[in-house]
Amino acid sequence: MRILIVDDDIATVDAILCTIDWEALGVEAVDTAYSAAQARRILQNGQIDLMVSDIEMPQGSGLELLSWVRERELPVECLLLTCHERFDYAASAVKLSAVDYLTKPFDAGIMTLSIKRAIARVRENKRLLEGSRYGEWRSQNPRHEELSFWRSLLSEAAERDEHQLGSELEARALPFTAQARFRLVTACVSEYDRPMHELGRELLFYILENAFSRCLCGQEENRRVVRHLGSSGLWLFIAADDQPDSELLARCQSAISACADTARVRVTCCVGDAAPLPMLGSGLAAMQALVERSVAYYGQAFLESEQVAGDGETSVLDAGRLSAMLTSRDKVAVLNAIKQALGVRAAMRTLSERTLYLMKQELMQAVYAYLAQAGVQAATLFQDEASIRLSELACRSAVDTLRFANYLLEHAFAREDEHLRSSALTEKIDTYLRKHYREDIGRAELAAEFHLAGEYLAKLYKKKTGKTFKDTLREYRMEQAKRLLRDPDVLISDVAAEAGYDNFSYFSTLFKKETGLTPQEYRRG
User: For 2-130, which CATH class?
Assistant: First the structure.
């Protein structure tokens, strides 16, 4: 295996040379080039299998170099590096069939895995070139044959016929019989959105498959790890040899740790009971449901026989105690109560997805009731993107439940504080309007008085009272006019001015519209 490193930055070339354990990857020789022109000469003269090239070079880019390689149909795989994550670079890399596209500064572990994946592709291509007929390809690609078999077997929910299965195994020349017993390991991958964006789908899949193949099957090249990405998320299904429980659990834990360290994802594994080959795929759906239900084991490995017991409880949290803690705004006490409830059920192995759902519903009900008592409209309180996302994930694990609870409480108390501030401000505005009702008051005067933007004040006031400043001012002026008209010592002609109106005719029109009577009729009646 011969590799060429191309980069105009000498320090980067040296870093790649010194960081990667080439011998462990089976690389016999590593060439270097500091320009596209120098790289072309090496590619023309030497047997290069893999090229690791920077994209942004002053005398010919890495994309141009790779395009030159493809035009000449050189059997060279390519891994591209760049300082800038750009869509056009990524699109060009895909178009030119680059193995991977990594951003600098590179992570040594990710770089090693990318090179490892590229080397695997080189070896696959070499095997393909050795035989042109399908039969020869099959005989020289036992890894593909075995992986294809497991994909087929695990995609069928029904039990397979043992005789037909035996014939298929014989035709594929696989090293086990239909009577062999395996243990299906079902792994659910969580929190993979960001790693998938940062690493790319193919590299992430390679990292996960490689970790489980190495840890559970003892194979560097994947033969028994089947990947599935769909509406239910990202899953890995592994056909492991029948081994003792303790050994398989330890192997699963090693794979979980490797995935967390390298790809920063959370993996939960369920190790199935040993089953004959024809029955292995029939229990797949039940295993997936078991993993989703067993939130007590989130991020861990557990046995199918250790599944969470269904206790049928209908209530998790003490409603009265929860209400009292909310009334005292004791967020820490609420979270501690939730932690305690989670801890007890986790210790008893009764913590299930249903338990978390009940806990979430009880907490939300208590918070909504608390906000309603405080006069806060809670219907649209938690409709933003972050709230929805946290709510959706709340039943995934105990950690996610606590994360949602903390967010819910902080959001609720913050909204209550905002409500109290706005209520106090509304009362101050009402007091000011009643005190200065004889004056010409509008947004500008109120903005100057309260040192806030007039538009903000108007929206806040309308939201809290359902009325505009003018509505409130007019109502109060009419109340004062009625009071004055009931006093026979006050002349009707003076009432308008006392109520804040300069024009009696205008006042009389408004008064009749408000009461259905003229000022004179109101006094007589």
Answer: alpha beta
